Amino acid sequence: MKIPPFGLTTREIREELAPLRNDFSVAVCRAKNPFNIGAIIRVAHSFLVREIFLIGTEPYYERASMGMQKYETIVECPDEASFLEAARGRPLIGVERDHARRTLWEAPFPRGLVFLFGSEDDGLPQALLDACEDVIAIPMYGINHSYPVAIAAGMTLCEWARRRDPRGGVSRAGG
User: Fold this and answer.
1) Computed from CA positions of residues 84, 89, 95, 97, in that sequence, does the dihedral angle turn out positive or negative?
2) CATH architecture of the domain with range 10-163
3) Which spans in 47-148 are helix H?
4) How do residues 4-47 score in pLDDT, each as one tens digit?
5) Integer CA distances (angstroms), 36 to 40, 58, 111, in order
6) Contact indicator for 95, 137 with CB cutoff of 8 Å
7) pTM here?
8) CB 29, CB 85: distance < 8 Å
9) Are 52 and 77 in contact (CB under 8 A)?
């Protein structure tokens, strides 16, 4: 099912969404698979994040974001140092299985946080791990070592929303 056109410009849609934005952000180290970055942008839009930090210079696949990049504030950071400067003063929560201090289910989510996701192959660079206030892991039950990064982002943002949903988790569709 396609959504009919809103009859608004991109700028007008962004202005309408601005007061609805949530007080948290997503940062992702650009990876070898540009599809994943586009998918994370699409997922982040679904949760109306404050902004999306893209760390590194690799391109991302815009088609995977399904046009949602037009409605998001995307902050391009060419390297880890520029990201840390851009996010200065905000709690960084790394999502990384190998260096986790606790699970997604038990981690506190302070206001203004930035969820930080690493690349599929290398995870989070040490400089970013060192800057994290906390590092969390999503529980796994199979023998696989990790979740795809776009899936991990979706699960993490869903847990954030579950805790913060002012409707008590009730679907707008009434389900």
Assistant:
1) positive
2) 3-Layer(aba) Sandwich (3.40)
3) 80-86, 126-131
4) 567 888 898 889 889 989 999 999 997 777 778 888 999 999 89
5) 6, 12, 26
6) yes
7) 0.88
8) no
9) no
Residue for token digits 């996701």? 117
In the chain, the amino acid numbered 57 is T
Give me the amino acid identity at 15.
E
Specify whether the CB–CB gap between 115 and 25 falls below 8 A. yes
CB 97 within 8 A of CB 140: yes
According to DSSP, residue 112 is labeled T
Q: In this structure, which amino acid lies at residue 106?
A: E
Distance CA 84, CA 89 (A): 9
Using one digit for the tens of pLDDT, what is the confidence trace for 89-110? Answer: 999 999 998 899 999 999 999 9
- Token pair listed for 65: 């974001």
